[in-house]
Write a structure and sequence with these properties.
Helix content is about 25%, strand content about 20%. By secondary structure, the protein is an alpha/beta fold. The chain has one domain: Glycosidases (TIM Barrel), CATH 3.20.20. Keywords: Signal.
Length: about 250
């Protein structure tokens, strides 16, 4: 349990607001909702933080469940963070960080099975896993990368799990050779720097089609900003394409 003085600080932050000017009244236009994503390394976040985020105007949080770059691969804090966020009234989306290994067979199958296996023998169920497609997670060979991604996606589909893709146009084109994938929800990022000064507008107006996607579902528009006593990345999502009630359930 968090110390009383920290709970008081978090409560003060909640009441003070702290939202960027561009996201105040975000949902009034009926299209956008506010989300926060937590970067790795993950840690125990705690119910007061999630309650504070809810009061501050966030509707959904994105939490890590799997990181192929470390051992063990699964994120143990997810078992505590996901239920705490749900109880605070937040929708929860989860993501995995894969890693391409040369000379390993069926690694896409193995990694997706491991990520989905986080929920085995728990009351938690997942409907969707987002895959972080960034250069540090993939090979230099676009053919291998496409095979790796295809294997992860097909494995998820066999498990009745939807897949979302986290990437941006430059990294996607470099990793996949401008592969036309589409058909899955897109979470893209457009940030110029960390902190409030690196934010871009909290909307999709600067989105340009790539990879078969003509519309995004989520945009990360701010990186490493502090609110409710924790550092988060700021996201805006299309409430028509990502429903609060479609996310994780206990």
């Amino acid at each position: 349990m968090l110390p009383l003085f920290l709970i008081g600080i978090i409560a003060a932050i909640c009441s003070a607001g702290g939202l960027p000017e561009g996201v105040v009244g975000l949902e009034e236009n009926g299209h956008y909702g506010l989300a926060a994503d937590f970067s790795l390394p993950s840690s125990f976040i705690g119910p007061p933080v999630f309650s504070c985020l809810k009061k501050a105007g966030f509707s959904i949080v994105f939490l890590p469940i799997y990181n192929a770059h470390v051992h063990p691969h699964w994120i143990s804090d997810a078992f505590f963070n996901i239920p705490a966020a749900i109880r605070a009234g937040l929708g929860v989306e989860v993501y995995m960080v894969p890693k391409y290994h040369a000379f390993k067979e069926e690694q896409g199958l193995v990694q997706m099975n491991e990520a989905a296996g986080v929920f085995t023998n728990t009351p938690l169920k997942t409907r969707r896993i987002w895959i972080k497609v960034k250069t540090q997670n993939f090979d230099d060979d676009t053919r291998y990368n496409k095979e790796f991604l295809t294997e992860m996606i097909s494995t998820a589909q066999k498990l009745n799990i939807d897949v979302g893709i986290y990437t941006n146009r430059k990294q996607w084109d470099f990793i996949t050779g401008e592969w036309n994938l589409g058909g899955h929800k897109l979470w893209y990022w457009n940030v110029t720097d960390v902190g409030r000064g690196g934010e871009t507008p909290a909307n999709f107006e600067n989105f340009r089609s790539f990879g078969g996607w003509t519309e995004p579902t989520v945009k990360q528009f701010g990186k490493r900003e502090k609110i409710c006593g924790v550092m988060v990345n700021w996201d805006v999502y299309d409430v028509r394409r990502l429903k609060h009630y479609e996310t994780q359930k206990v």
